[in-house]
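Researcher: Let's try something more involved. This one mixes different molecule types, so please make sure each is placed in the same coordinate frame as the others.
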Amino acid sequence: MRKAYLALVYLFLYTPIAVLMILSFNKAGLPTAWTGFSTEWYGRLLESPKIIAAARNSLIVAIVSTLIATAIGTLLALGVERRKASAGLDALLFTPMIIPDIVLAIALLSFFTLIKFTLGLHSIILAHVVFNIAFVCAVVRARLKSFDWSLTEASRDLGAGAVTTFLRITFPLIWPAVIAAGLLSFTLSVDEFIIAYFTAGAGQGSTTLPMQIYAMIRFGVTPEINAMATIILLVSFVLVLLAQRFNRASVPGAA
Amino acid sequence: MLPGLLWLGLLMVVPCAIILVTAFYERGIYGGVDWSVATLANFVRAGEWLYLSIFLDSARIAGLAAILALLIGYPAAYAITKSSARHQTALLFLAMLPFWTNYLIRTYAWIVLLNPAGLINNFLQLTGVTSGPLPILYNEFAVILGLVYNYVPFVILAIYSALQRLDPSYAEASRDLGATALTTFWRITLPLTAPGVAAGAVFVFVLSIGNFVTPDLLGGGKLQMVGNLIYDQFLTARDWPFGSALSVILIAVMLLLLFAQALAANRARGEGRSHA
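Model: All components are placed in one shared frame. Result:
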C-alpha cells in the first residue's frame, strides 16, 4: 500500500520526463507517436547555429555568474553564521528565493533602464548572481551549522590573519559544500528563463538556451525540442547528483 | 559579507524600491514613466473588475494547486519517513531531483503528454475510454496540473522535515493507549505537523500565484494570471507604472501570507515549548 502509493507519486514525477526523453529518439517528425529509433534530431541540434549560439551564451552566463555568486555567497554565509541571528538579514537572504521571477525581472529591467545601463549577457550575469548568491549562501550556511568555530579561533589566537585562517582552516573544511553550492548555482542559472528574457536586451546576440527553447515551444512541439530537453535534463541530473555527493561528504559523520 | 550585501542591496532592494515608486506615477506618452505627478490611479485601476478578477482567478488556481500538492505530497512524505533510514535519503533525493531541472522543460513535457495527439489522449482512445481527444490542454485543468507537478517536490520536502522533527513517542503513546492508526494520525501526527503543512501550502501558493511560464504555456493564452498580466504590461502594453502597481499588490499579498505563516509557526513552536 505504502510502496504502491510512493511508486505512483514517482511515476507522476518521472513519466513526463521519461516520455520526453524517449520521444527525442523518435524517427518521424511527429513528436507524439513512435515510428522507430533515430538519433537524427540530435544531429539537427548541432547543425543549428542559433541553438549553438544560445548554448554558448548560457554557458558563459552560468559559468561567470556561478563563479561570482559562489565566492560572494560563501563569504556572506561565513559572515552571517558568525553573527547573532538577525530576522532582517534572514529575510533579505530569503527574498531572492521566494520573489516571483517575473517581479525580479521587471524590477531589474526598470533599474537598468533608469540608470541607462546597456543590456546584454553582462546584465543577465548581474541578475543571475542575485538569486545564485541566496542559494549558495543557504547551502554553505547549512554546512556551517555543524562547523567547529573553535578551530578558526585557535588559528587566530596563534597569530594567523583572517585570510590565512580562511585559506588554511575554514576553506579546507567546507570546500565540498562550496562545490555543491556552485554546482546547484550553475544548474539554476543554465535553466533560468524569465529574468534572462527581461535583462537580455533587444538584440539576438544575448539569447540564452531557455529563451531559445521558449521561442521554439511557442512555435509548437518539435522533435528538436525533445532532443535538446533530454540533453539539458541529463546535464542537470548529473550536476545535482554530484552536488548531493559533495554536500554529503562535507558534513562529518553523515557520509 | 559586504560584497554580498551590496550586491543584493543594489540589484534587488533598489530595483524593488524603484518598482514601488514607479507604481505611484503614470505612463509617459511614449511608454516609459512620467515622473511629474504622483498618483494613486494605477491602484484604483487595479481594483477594476477586469484586473480584480484576474487576481481572484490566480488566487483560486494557486489555492487549488496548493491543496492538491498537499494531498499528493503529504502521504508521499509520510511514506518516505516510514521507509528504512538508508532508503529515505535516496527517496527524498529522487523526489527533489525534478525540482532542480529546467522549469520550462518540465512544463513543456505536459504539452507533449496532454495535446490532442499526445500520449494520454492516444491511450484513452486506444482503450476505448473516450471516442475522441479530450480537451485537457490549454485550459485551467492543465495549468493546475502543471503547477502541482512542479511544486509537489517542495511539499514533500517541507512535510518530510516536519515529520522528521516529530517525536515518535507521541504516536507510540497514542497507540499504546488504544487509539487506532487512523485516529493517531488525525489526532496526533497531523496536528503536530501542521506548521509543515502550512509552510508547504504557503510556498506552493506563493510560487503559483506569481507564476508566468505555466499559465503562459499550458493555459494557451486563454488563461491569464497575475504573472502574465504583469508581463503584458511591461512587454506588450508598455504601461510600466501599471505593471509596477500590479507587482506591488502581488508582493503585498505574498508578504501578508508569509507573515501569517511565520506568525503561526512561531506560535506553534511556543506552544510546543510550554507543553514540554
